[in-house]
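Hi there,

I know you've been waiting on this one. I reran it after we fixed the sequence typo, so this is the corrected version. Both the input and the resulting structure follow.
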Amino acid sequence: MTAITTIRIDHAALPDQFDRSRPNAVAEAIEAALRDDGINAEASDVISHIKIELPTTQLATACGALAELQLI
């Protein structure tokens, strides 16, 4: 079994390039960007935040990708 890491990003913390009024679209865009970088992630809108789940072994790579998106 693979260890899973969950990253939560508050809607209020989203940079201006993301449309906060469309959180499902934001989650889809984040998931697509991570997958483009080879990260097997699932992102979803969870009322107050975006939840990103990914294998812990890909955490370092995901952090780099999320930093490029100005999410962390």
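Quick highlight: The longest strand covers residues 4-10.

Best,
R. S.
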